[in-house]
Design brief:
Layout lengths: L6 E5 L4 H12 L3 E6 L2 H13 L3 E6 L5 H15 L4 E4 L15 H29 L2 E6 L13 H20 L5 E8 L2 E2 L12 H5 L2 E2 H13 L8 E4 L11
Parallel strand pairs: 1-2, 1-4, 2-3, 4-5, 5-6, 6-9, 7-8
Helix pairs in contact: 1-2, 1-7, 3-4, 4-5
Length: 247
């Protein structure tokens, strides 16, 4: 398994799973292109990768901005002449979780960042993959997309279900084109995302969760398989399960 010299775009690359994936793919020899809203976070990840001898560029971007996203992807193609891997990691979650508390603003935030943005970045990247008849698209969903969670809330559960459906749709539309779409469904992951919960988990609970680096290993596996093979869907859960009450 190797990503040597493959051009890998990672959205949401400034923290959490996106950051861990960028570092992991750089270790495998990938040329990393980080997308994210916060320049300072991207710069920190860039410095980490470069200190380890990896290759990385960064672009500050709101992935729901269609024109800006298309322009940046064109810049990437001009610089590297191809795109081999796209990892759609970007996403956000509302603070309100229950149906009756969830506002229109909560819905817009969650659907736009997880679904709209994922589709927009994929639209921008696919033409280049079609031209080379090769490419891997990896979407980060969640187990709550299959089993809705009171902790994650109504909007996030629905959004992550849409990401799973979108991934399988891509494989239907682009069958036999050389493009393969994969989706990873993590269980609870110890990332800064958890701090947005109404009742953030304690440290002992976080220690039982998956680490962002564990999910990055799964993503690297999907990306590094020979082009003749693919993992359409992969679930990764904590070995130890916590007993939960609604947040």
């Amino acid at each position: 398994m190797t990503l040597k010299d493959q051009v890998c775009i990672i959205s949401g690359g400034g923290s959490g799973i996106g950051r861990a994936t960028a570092i992991r793919m750089a270790e495998d020899g990938g040329k990393i292109v980080l997308l994210g809203r916060t320049k300072s976070k991207l710069q920190i990840v860039q410095a980490e990768i470069e200190r380890a001898g990896g290759k990385v560029t960064t672009h500050t971007l709101d992935i729901t901005d269609l024109e800006a996203t298309q322009a940046i992807v064109k810049d990437v193609v001009r610089e590297f002449e191809r795109i081999d891997v796209l990892v759609n990691c970007a996403g956000d979650i509302s603070r309100h979780r229950t149906l009756l508390e969830t506002t229109v603003e909560d819905i817009d935030l969650t659907i736009d960042s997880n679904v709209k943005g994922t589709i927009i970045v994929t639209q921008a990247v696919v033409p280049q993959m079609l031209a080379t008849r090769s490419g891997t698209i990896i979407n980060v969903s969640s187990v709550v997309g299959v089993t809705p969670s009171l902790i994650s809330g109504v909007a996030y559960s629905a959004a992550k279900a849409a990401v799973i459906n979108f991934t399988h749709y891509l494989n239907r539309e682009f069958v036999n084109t050389g493009i393969r779409a994969c989706v990873v469904l993590p269980g609870e992951v110890d990332t800064p995302f958890l701090d947005k919960r109404p009742n953030p988990p304690a440290n002992d609970a976080r220690e039982m969760m998956i680490a962002a680096e564990d999910v990055a290993e799964a993503i690297a596996l999907m990306a590094g398989l020979p082009q003749r093979a693919m993992i359409p869907e992969l679930v990764i859960r904590p070995t130890l399960q916590l007993r939960r009450v609604p947040a």
